[in-house]
Amino acid sequence: MEKIILLIPGIPLVIAFILIFVSKKEHIPKVSIMLSSMIALLGLYGTYYVITTDESIHGFGGLFVFNELSAILVPYVAILGLVIRKYATKYMWDEPGYKRFFILLNFIFSAIYMLVMSNNLVILALAWQLMSISLYLLVSFNVASKSAVKNGSWTMLIHKGADLLFILAVILTYQTFGSVDLGQLSQTWLEMSKNPTDNPTIFVIGLLFLVAAMMKSAIVPFHIWLPYTSEAPTPVSALMHAGVVNVGGILLNKLAFLLLLTPAVLNIAFVIGLFTAIFASVLMLVVPDIKRSLGYSTAGQMGYMIMEVGLGAFSLAIYHLMVHGIFKATLFLESGGLIRYARHDPNIPQRLSYKLFWEEKTEHKSNKTFNLIALFTILPLLIFIGVKMVLSEEFFEFNAAIVILAFGWLTGTQLFLSFFKVSRSDSIKVILALVSSFIIILFTYEFIGLALEHFIYGEHALLFYGAATLNVTIIMSMVALAAIMIIGWLFMYKQHFVGIQKSKMPKRTQWLFYKLLAKEAYVSDFFIKYIKIFKKG
Amino acid sequence: MLMNIILLILAAGVPYYLVLEKSQKLNSEKIFLISGFLLLCAIVISSFVEGQYSGLLVIIALLSAIFSIYKATKTTNFYKFGYYLLFINAPFFMLFIREQGVLYSLSLLITLAGVYSIAKHYDKYYGSANYHGISGTTLATPYVGAFLTVYLITLALYPPFPNALFLLSNMIKEETTLLWYIVVVVVFFGNFMVAMRVMPKTVFGTPNTNLHYVDLTSKEKIMHFVIIISLLVLSIIGFKGTIA
């Protein structure tokens, strides 16, 4: 009975086929949503089955599996799919090619489900490529727009590169380990990790998979396709930022046991992820186009995700990509409604977020809020640390955890400062806010991140942290963390705690640095100048 | 060896289309049909020939393919596009295991039959098989747009279509050498670039307002439908082969 869950990747294809014969326009979304709901229900049933029985569901000769990773991701993708389809029902109504849109949407969802549920590298390779072509057709959906088509071509080119690297990695894997069955391979890799050997072929395989994942996840220097594809319809943008870019993280999780054998690849992932996180986040602040800014924001988050993988926190990467996906999809899907409200009301619409944060900023009545935050965060933290110290010291053994927490804290702080007005007079309040943000991050990591880790990888989770040979001692980690906090504090003090800044001309070097960032480090110019293969003829 | 050289001439051409194009005795449609027929002959003959091709012949086919990629980026004619693609893929025919190479070439021929039908449609309604200026077919002539998209995706080596599946199957089963990697990378990207650069000029773009667009007739639709079904049948064979 439970085997029926393995039909999930095929259902969107059936929907696409049925849609070809649906003639009435209003029936297209109805059919699509109704049948997609079935996927969501099946996905939830699958999750329930995996949690209650603690068993994976295998089928189709071992080609597909519904395991712990699928149990988390399939319902997420299915619900995201439902929301996007529902949103597109009205949003796309007046667009030419309404039926084409829903057919393509179903194709890309089928590819995502295949990718998540595949237990075979060949199926994974097929899903990987199917996703590339579906994405290209969706990004170029507005066929009459020259820029949409041109940017679609960039997307296509980078994704084709990812496809080739992926296929080469699959071939090398087959030649080295004699199998393409992921379950079997994972067992082999796990056994091999007990007696690690320095095999350059395994390094090459790991590197090929990593670069392929980076290309799909818009990691620098392959990020250029993401910020420039915002001309795609809003539901497609939501799907891209919440679903498609995540496949790199999903792939690396599927190959987690392979990466155990190649710590060097994990280190490369960490360094490139870190660079992407900083570089893309800085560009996000500089670029003048709001859509490109969102693109860089996503690229930065993907950098975080790859960095987490590099630290051995594979399951945390999954948690991160899901949370980020929900956040970004909400941003994109809400934008239309917000514009509509703003047309009727010149003020910012009266929404919950507005009442909570904006009014807080203007009315300076936030002491109560902060006291509450402090009460509900600092106190539990003290209890939590006390209990931790008594029961075990395991938490502090992870250098990775400290690095992750430091970055998590920086992000949390950034978020807090963007919501609340701060001034010199409110220093205490801000300190409380910053500490609270850190505590929230700590609790999220401890209760959700580690729970997820235990669910997906069980007893093997600790192996990844061991493999990530980022040899930093606990003291070095603490010093680095303190340095980050102090620098961050000084920076924010300078940025936010002053009343009115005196106008000051920036130095020449500052101008040059700004120019470099504003031109997106000339990466897009490079693409425009040298990659003209789609224009010739 | 002699048989292998004959196969090389039939499949890889050592671009004889250059001579035919220059002589102007044959138009591009005829060259397309001749090239397709010769590849078909090569497919039939190859089933009687044992053994692998020599590296030298594969290199000749590869050089011919690279030249054809260059030529293909210069044309806007569907017939020329078709026969250039035949020569671009010749190294795969030479390099892969006989049976797989034959199946790959067969699916290529079927896809190009679809492109040929589209070319004939253009010839009939727009005066020539030249697609320059006939953009936006997705909006103006949805059936032409849809079928052409499928053929171009197939030629660009994307699944679920058979070319990609046979290629993947071959790639996994073959023993790899440096030459093998060079051929795979060049031809993989060659097919992709040549096929995908046609899309922005045909299926995408705004429809030309000076042109009276005509979509496929019922007879043509049935023909294309049969081609797609054939491709899907080959896909199933290719999928089974890949998984096995």
Mean pLDDT of chain A: 80
User: How many structural units, i.e. domains of chain A?
Assistant: 3
Order of adjacent strands in the largest pleated sheet of chain A? 1-2
Structural class of chain B: mainly alpha
N- to C-terminal distance of chain A: 55 Å
Structural class of chain A: mainly alpha
Biggest β-sheet strands, sense, barrel of chain B: none
Order of helices and strands of chain A: HHEEHHHHHHHHHHHHHHHHHHHH
- Give start-end ranges of low-pLDDT stretches of chain A: none
Question: In angstroms, what separates the terminal alpha carbons of chain B?
Answer: 31 Å
Q: Write down the secondary-structure element order of chain B.
A: HHHHHHHHHHHH
Mean pLDDT of chain B: 86
Q: How many β-strands of chain B, per DSSP?
A: 0
Low-pLDDT ranges of chain B:
none
The proportion of residues in beta strands of chain B is under 5%
Radius of gyration of chain B: 18 Å
Total strands of chain A:
2
Overall tally of domains of chain B: 1
| DSSP helical segment count of chain A | 22
Assembly classification: heterodimer
**Beta strand % of chain A:** under 5%
Question: What is the structure about, briefly put?
Answer:
With 537 residues, chain A is an all-alpha fold. Chain A is built from 22 helices and two strands. In chain A, helix 8 (200-216) runs antiparallel to helix 10 (247-254).
